[in-house]
Amino acid sequence: MDILVVNPNTTASMTDTIRRAAQRAAAAGTHIVAVNPPTGPESIEGFYDDALAVPGVLAEIAKGEAHGVAAHVIACFDDTGLDAARALACAPVVGIGEAAFHVASLIAGRFAVVTTLPRSVPTIEFNLIRYGLAARCARVRASDVPVLDLEKRQSDAVERIDAQIAAAKSNDGAEAIVLGCAGMADLAAELTARHNMPVIDGVAAAVALAETLVRLGMRTSKLGGYAAPLPKRR
Ligand code: 5HY
After folding, report:
1. If you count DSSP H runs as helices and E runs as strands, how many of each does the chain have, helices first?
2. Fewer beta carbons within 10 angstroms: which end of the chain, N or C?
3. pTM above the 0.70 mark?
4. Are 157 and 149 in contact, with CB atoms under 8 Å apart?
5. pLDDT tens digits, residue range 141-189?
6. Does any ligand 1 atom lie closer than 6 A to the CB of residue 175?
7. Is 127 in the pocket of ligand 1 (CB under 6 A)?
8. Measured from the CB, is residue 9 less than 6 Å from ligand 1?
9. What secondary structure does DSSP assign to 1-41, as a single string?
10. What would you report as the CA-atom Rg of the chain, rounded to the nearest whole angstrom?
11. Residue 184's closest CA among 89, 92, 120?
């Protein structure tokens, strides 16, 4: 099966990080096609960037549908444009945020999220409420790491994320951690070992859930909110 993985920001090196993590998580026979829009914000940090990135995401989803991909993954932790993408697509569309929350809820009573900047926290908190999973999340913590610093190996990004995980474990009673940015995808294994607790990467979670939906023969419902967009001047 072909799975289209859309990185909603325009940073190609981050799309490569996401591609590698997605292909690592994919089952044999699953081919990952990772793309980012040619236009939009280089990183998504907060409501404004998120809104500006939506048209680019929808254009990539439309191309994926035209190519007949089996499923789509939106690889930004804000689940950028997720509902609009589901209206546009017949194939399943999985956001890495929603996927990670569900995986965490299946293996722990309470989890915490560690994301990038403070301005990214409200979007994640609102999504948790929308998905009906806020009661399972002890806290959404910011590591004060700008998204693009995750691409700089010399930055102290890992130490800052590590410190927030330790605080979530000791202060929030977190039993699992969700990494709140696609750019953290390749840190999950190392941090799981360091903290001896499940540290979940949303890219891997979303690819695995997308494969499962395809194997179950699921397609996005075209009744109600995810009905196909009506033809009109736009
Ligand atoms: C992400 N931004 O996963 C989010 C993380 C955040 O460009 N890719 C981004 O801070 O919201």
Report:
1. 8, 8
2. C
3. yes
4. yes
5. 999 999 999 998 778 999 999 999 999 999 999 999 999 999 999 999 9
6. no
7. no
8. yes
9. -EEEEE-SS--HHHHHHHHHHHHHHSPTT-EEEEE--SSS-
10. 17
11. 120
